[in-house]
Amino acid sequence: MKKLLIKNCRLRSGDLKDILISDGKFEKIADTIDAAGSAAEDVEVIDAGGNLVTPPFCDAHLHLDATLSVGKPRYNMSGTLMEGIQIWDERKVGLSKEIIKKNATDVIEWEVANGSTFLRTHVDSTDTTGVVVDALLEVRDEVKDIADLQIVAFPQDCIYTSDDGEKMLEEALEKGCDVVGGLPYFEYSPIDGYNDLKFVFDMAEKYDRLVDVHCDECSDDQSRYVEYMARETIVRGLEGRVAASHTTAMHNYDNEYAAKVISNIKRADMTIITNPFANANLQNRRDGYPRRRGHTRVDELLEAGVNICIGSDDIMDPWYPMGKGSPLAGANLLLNYAQISGYAQIPLLIDMITENPAKTMHIDGYGIAEGNPANMVILDVDSEFDAVRLTAEALYVIRKGRVISRTVPAKRELMRGDEKHDIDFKVTPENK
Ligand SMILES: [Zn+2]
Questions:
Q1: What residue spans define the domains of the chain?
Q2: Which one of 49, 178, 270, 329 has the fewest beta carbons within 10 angstroms of its own beta carbon?
Q3: Helices (H) and strands (E) in the chain — how many of each?
Q4: How many Å apart are CA 240 and CA 265, to the nearest integer?
């Protein structure tokens, strides 16, 4: 395998380095590495031109079984989560494995082109045919050249509200799903909701799997399952293995109660996965005005030191009609929506799509460091600030030492009389 030398890489620390890759690993990172003396057929040289390089993005929350199905069989006219669930129930009757695989694979390719090669998707374990789970398990194998896919067995119709929910969830784990999911709030009653979580944690212990629950994804300030998740995590000694996705009800909690819950989430070393696109749209719709933001308490969780990740969640499906699989677009939206625009907070948004989800997903050897698998992205900007501001393109995506995606940025030419101005939305030293 040819060596790869990448010159002039701006690391997240701000340092400018050259990076040498051989045999799929980062061999050397230094101020200057010279390819002179090596035959051209032995070393490929890429000049990063001082642009920012990061480890690949990780999209921590997707639904690749439903993706690209917007409008099929019908559009969500109310925009609510409940109508989305009804549409998905209509769609999955008689759905073919080939269609699910095609849609999932297309979105994985979008994600990779946007710089994400580590993806966690939920997959509906309450589909009675089993086709949905089988489709994603096959896709996980088929895309290994470009992405690592982690699959959460997710009981979309709930464990106790659907028939045989326990059995179907366990079957999905036996088939090979990587993570156990749950949906306690949408069970018939709080008792069923707590039993839902108890079963999820039992399965995590029995099959030695990570946990990722759709938790408190509602506007109801009495939805308090995340408190129970923290309790189960601590009592069972599962610290560092449990994620709660959404937790939007927390936005509406009494402040005293929220402070207690956040401190227990930290104690349990749990991850909170926030999904800016869906959460901005689905929650607090019945508020009238003033309308609460319907988002979990990102700033307070950050202040408490909780591990937070950003997920795309829905990409063109019954719950959210837009999306293109770009973690940087999620970071950009969260900056606005959760008021994370303080200058020192911007790197935290990059953490939420890189280091934080890598920790949640237990990815080995993650990061640009000598000896690690050579996975990295070269962005079309020289700073984290511009990466979020411009939702920067991924010029190169490198996986295990191989370039798997290249992007040629758009070229814009503006005519002022006879004079041509190139427009790239970047600030220059002349802008004072
Ligand atoms: Zn979700």
A1: 3-50+366-412, 57-360
A2: 49
A3: 13, 18
A4: 11
Residues less than 5 Å from ion ligand 1, measured at CB: 313
pLDDT in tens, 174-213: 999 999 999 999 999 999 999 999 999 999 999 999 999 9
State pLDDT tens for residues 350-398. Answer: 999 999 999 999 999 999 999 999 999 999 999 999 999 999 999 999 9
pLDDT digit string, tens, across residues 24-59: 999 999 999 987 767 767 899 999 999 999 999 999
CA of 313 to the centre of ligand 1 (A): 5
Query: Is the CATH number 2.30.40.10 carried by domain 3-50+366-412?
Result: yes
Q: What is the DSSP string of 142-173?
A: HTTTT-EEEEEEE-TT-TTTSTTHHHHHHHHH
- 52: β partners: 10
Supply 166's token pair.
């326990």
Indicate if 217 belongs to the active site: yes
CB atoms within 10 A of CB 241: 21
